[in-house]
Amino acid sequence: MRGNKFSSRMFASLFVIVLGLCYCSRASSQASLGLPRLFGPSEALVKTAVEMNCELLTFPENETILLQLFREVDRSRMFAEYTSLKGKEATLPLYVRHFHEGNLVCVASAQNNSLIEPTVSNIHYLKVIEPVEGAEIEVCSGLVNLFEGNRLELRCKLKAGNHVSYKWLLNGRLVSQSLLHDDRLLINRTTSQDSGSYRCVASNSFNQTDFFTVNSTEVVITVKDLVSEPDISFSVLKEDIHNYFAVVSCRSTRGTPPVTFSLYNSTEFIASVMTEERFATFKVPLVLGQDLGFLQCQARNGDWVVYGEKIPLEVVPVGGPVTMRYTYDSGENYAVISITIYCEAAKGTHARYQWFLNGTLLHDRGSFYYVHHQHPELAMLMLSVGDSSAGTYHCEVSDSFDNTTAISSRRLYLDKHRLNRLPVWVVAVVFGSFTFLILLVSVCCGIGVVFRRRHYGEKSLSDFEMERITPAYYGKLDLSHYNEDADVVNAARGGEVDQMAAG
Q1: Global pTM exceeds 0.85
Q2: Cβ neighbours of residue 194 under 8 Å, at least 6 residues apart?
């Protein structure tokens, strides 16, 4: 009896186990979820409502399916959810905020059955657009007034907006794209050409149909030129018979004022002045004829400092003699068409030159002349040769600071006929060369005659003539056809006998 009871219990237990396994196997086959499909708009404006859609085609019967919307990389924050019965497509409403941008996924799960594994949809990217608003320029480099060579960085700041493209305008013209870095404009080494009014233009769009643009206010940037090396010069001022001064000029060709100029004598500081111009003057006492060292100008604007060349501070009064010389240019038929006369004094560092024609002072320019001063040691008078230019010329040289004593050159008479007449020395050279050639030919002929006589010894002229007319071959002559003239025959025979005897 016990054995039968035990067998019955064992059989019942085995039946229950087998039935449970069958049930679990059947339940397992019905509990799998397919992959949901997520779709919806790819772009959305911020602070607007959109709908995302999620559908699940494969799901177990009699199960309530929960569909939820998440960011792909963050499941801790749910954006929307929907409970689907009998596989109904889910509509997931979304009030768009910035954090919704990115890859979205739909997660499907059995709401009341933890045994069913959740599934995840495809990735759907949502781009969130915020229209641009409220642009202004921030000067990140700090200064709106700067010197060339410094760095300029501008940033276009927006109150709102993303996915923005930027343009920069300088005085209404587009700035090179190579200077743009997203919302920034960067110039590493500025020049004065970078000065002007800057404005940024920010824009974005939604679905390529709605476009948003905003312009900033203008910011004026001033790039100052660094001052260039100053040139130096000086003139002499005579206040009275004993007091002379050098009026020194320091001048730069470029540089944004104010500029500070300083004057040095060798390394000794003399004076300094700040000016709104690019030049300054200084007054320095001097003594004529003495070497007083070297003058040098310094120029500074901002932190930039440059020095000019050094010049000697020495004033030598004009001294003689004063000399003139000239050169000329020729045209067709070698006729002289223009003349340049030079006037030089033996000494003098600050000379003034004056030109005179027939005692009348010539000013800087006339109908046929032009006065040009190259440097203090030399002056030129350029003439066009013609009837008007004929006359007597001379120059006078005096100190530019004291004209009480002037030194005059010698007079020089010029006219076109004299200039185009052959000089006596040219005629003498040509005639002498011709005479020399004639004498040279005569001497050569005489030497030839003497050499010929020595070569032939004491032969007489008749010998030369006989030699020249004697034939190279001779023999007995046939004179049979001269029988009619006995004299000719005898003469011929006699001559023949003489030749034989001589032979």
Answers
A1: no
A2: 152, 170, 187, 221, 223
